[in-house]
Every structure is written in C-alpha cells, then in structure tokens.
Amino acid sequence: MTEKTVHDRVNLDRLVRRLEKNITTESWTDGAPGTSATPAWIRTRGTLQALKHARKLLQSVESEDTSSSSVPNAPRHYADLRRTLDRLESLVAEVDKRISPPVMRPTPILPTIPPPPPVVDVSTSAEDSQPDAEATPLDPTATLLPADESLAAAAHERLYGPSEPRAFTRGPINPSETLLPPSLPTAAEKSTSQATPAFMQNSAALQEELSAQLAQMATQLKRNAIHFAGALEKDKAVVSETQEKLERNYDVMSKERVRLRDHSSKSWGTTWITILSLLVVLVGFVMTFLIIRIT
Q1: Burial of 41 (0-12, 13-18, 19+ CB in 10 A)
Q2: 48 and 39 in contact (C-beta within 8 Å)?
Q3: Residue ranges of the chain with pLDDT lower than 50?
Q4: I want to staple 74 with a disulfide (CB 3.0 to 4.6 A). Which of 24, 65, 93, 197 is the partner?
Q5: Residues 143-159: tens digit of each pLDDT
Q6: What is the pLDDT of residue 36?
Q7: What pLDDT, on the 0 to 100 scale, is given for residue 228?
Q8: Does residue 47 contact residue 92 with C-beta atoms inside 8 Å?
Q9: How far is CA 231 from CA 218, 238, 244, in A?
Q10: Final residue before a domain boundary, out of 99, 130, 146
Q11: Residue 16: inside a domain
Q12: Rounded-to-integer distance, Cα 61 and Cα 78, Å
C-alpha cells in the first residue's frame, strides 16, 4: 500500500464524517441564525460537489485495497461509506431541487431588431424620375400669348401713316413662323444635366484634396531642398577652412619632425661623449690609487 493510498483513506473518512455532520446540522434556509450569507441553493451545489469528490476518493481507495488485499474488513467499511454517501446525496439533491431558483431564459433580441431598409439603385431612380425630352418635345407656341389682330393693325398704321401707300398688306402674324425651331437637348447635354452620383462627387472631392496635399508636399520638399543646399554651402566653407588648417599643421609637424630627429642624433652623441669621459676619469682614478698603494 502506497503512502498516497493511506492519505486518501484517512481523508475519505474525515470527509464523510464532516459532510454527514454538516448536512445533519444544516437548516438549508436563507437568513437562518448561525448560517452564512451565501444563498442556500449555492450551499447545496457545493455540498453535491463535495459528495462527488468523496465518491472519487472512495473508488480510488477501494481499487487500491482490492488489488493489495491488506485490510480484511475493508469491503464492509467501504460499503457503509457508499450507503452513507448515497443517503446524504439523495437528501441534498432533494433539498436542492426544492430551493433552487427556476431557470429564466433571457428575452430574445432578434425580434426587436428592425429589418434593414431596401436598397435603392440611385442611377435607375434618377433615370426614371427624369422626364424624357425626346418623347415629349416642347411646343414653343404653346408658351406664347395669342396674337391680337387689332394691335397688329394699329402698329402698322403708326409705322406707315394714313397717307403713305402700303407696299403690301399682311394678315396677322403667326408667332410660330418668326421663331426658330426648338433645339432638343442632345445626349451629351442630357448626361451633363443629370445629377452627378454621390460617389462621383466624393471621388472628385477626394481627388481635389489629394491634389492640394500633393502641392503642399511639393512646396515643402522644395523648401527643404533649398535649406539643405544652403546648409551644404555653409558646411563646405567650414570643411575647406578645416582642410587648410590641417595642411598647415601637417607642414609644421613635418618640420618639427626633422628638427626632433636632428636633436635626437646630437643628444645621443653628447651622451656617449659624457659616458666615455666618465669611464676615462674612473680608469684614471683607479690607476692613481694603485700607483699610490704600490709605491
């Protein structure tokens, strides 16, 4: 028997005793003294989950003990636990069925949504609403006032006078004879006279806005190019001045290098002469000391 099985057996006994005690002492009513603020139906659901967990522990421990057969009275003990769990579960299930709130379905939203409006073709409606000029041409004489014969005769008398011979005599003037035939609108004029669709107006406005933005960007680009050219001119002057200074420094450093080389050669010669003089003096001192000691 493993250590886990031993722990499960101990936990199973404790869990069953605790559940039996809680279910026996529980009143299963809301607002009862000594009970928690949690609603009763939530407590019943939690108790049912605990009973399911106890059943799983019982099955696990029972399978382990059956395979090992280490406890002789285990089957009877497990049968008692199973009967206790069945009794407690039936009691809690009955209480849960009695106090659980009814399930309320929410009101459907689909019937409250209005149907979409029908799609109307703008071009077709515009063509249908426009009158057909070719089918019903306008009569220009219909809009003119009728000619009055007395007024025409009086005007003729005022022009020629009573004594002047009349070259000819003409009847009443027909206004339709003196007018040009009506010019019917051509297909191009009809197409231009029709209302421009909304998407074409939007496209034209968008093109104008883009053209204005492109012109503004081109102007700004030109300004940036001019500013960059001016900055390059200033930098060019600074670079040329720096180049001149570097060239002068190079010439000075070349001259100083030659002087340093000459000075180094002279200083090394002087150093060797000094060392040789010291050696001569040292040898003379030693010889003088030896001569004095010997003689």
Answers
A1: middle
A2: no
A3: 131-148, 151-152, 155, 158-171, 175-180, 188-193
A4: 65
A5: 444 444 554 455 455 44
A6: 64
A7: 93
A8: yes
A9: 20, 11, 20
A10: 99
A11: yes
A12: 9
Q: What is the pLDDT of residue 196?
A: 56
Handedness of CA 211, 215, 221, 224 (dihedral sign): negative
Please give the residue range of the domain that contains residue 244.
211-270
Quote the number of domains for the chain. Answer: 2
Q: CB of 51 within 8 A of CB of 92?
A: yes
Domain end point (choices 99, 131, 161):
99
Helix ranges (DSSP H) in the chain: 3-25, 40-68, 74-99, 122-129, 149-160, 175-178, 187-193, 198-294
Distance from C-alpha of 99 to C-alpha of 30, rounded to nearest angstrom? 10
Q: pLDDT over 70 for what percent of the chain?
A: 67
What are the residues whose beta carbons fall under 8 Å from the beta carbon of 198, sequence distance 6 or more?
A: 122
pLDDT of residue 211: 92
Instruction: Please state whether the predicted TM-score (pTM) of the whole model is above 0.70.
Output: no
Residue showing tokens 């180094």:
264
